[in-house]
Amino acid sequence: MGRWAVLNAYTLQAQLQLDSLGLSNKVSDSIAKCREQIKNMLSESLVPSKALEKISAKELLGRTEARVVEVMSEVKGMCEMVSLIRPDAAPVLSRDMQSIEKKFGSNIEILKQDAINPAENTKLGLEQLRQTIAEVSELVSHAEEFSTTPDRTISLVLDAIERGGGGLSGRLESLGGELKRVTGERDYLKKRLEEVDYVVSNLRSEKASLEEALSQAVAQLQTAEEEAKRWKNEALQASLKSVEESLSQLNAQLESLRSENEVEAHGKA
Fold this sequence. Notes:
Number of strands: 0
CATH topology of the domain at 3-165: Four Helix Bundle (Hemerythrin (Met), subunit A)
Structural class: mainly alpha
Order of helices and strands: HHHHHHHH
Radius of gyration: 45 Å
Largest sheet: none
CATH class of the domain at 3-165: Mainly Alpha
CATH architecture of the domain at 3-165: Up-down Bundle
Strand content: under 5%
Shape: elongated
């Protein structure tokens, strides 16, 4: 049996267990609670009014910060449960949650600032909070759509169980054992891969050290060659200078002898 089939079977088994615990009802309750919290937050703290826009940013923060934390906590739990029903929806819900959390964080930071124009700061904070709450409401709607349209394969298995399909539990247990074996192999291979990565990393470090040592040796060799060349040139120049001095001395002695001979020759004449 292919590994994907084993993994799918394991997912189905987990889903069936969760369904037996009433997960669908919990999701429905959580969605209803999220909508109630959003409604209360909008009606009590964010409903447009002149009086609301006149309050300070810090006062608005005091009214909304705890509510935001409460709403986000419930929404996060709801998304986690929906992700169990629809594993394929988990990346979408997680991405939307991160985006909303970031925006709420930005909204709260705006309200904490000491603005030059407090009224404008409050107005801006209100607008952004309303927009973010609207996105939360949209996320709840998407999560509800996902929860009411579970994975097609899971639906087929649930239908089979409702029709009294015999032997399915035993087959799932068998697949669970196969999955356990495959998971063991995966963990072993992962450990071996980590060991290989460690060895490769060490070899790369040694290679880098050898390359650096070789580079230094080449530089030292070049320096030595330049020194030898300079020394040879200097030695040659010194030798040439010594020879020239010797020739000059010999020429001087030769001229002296010639002068003495000329004087002696004149004396005899």
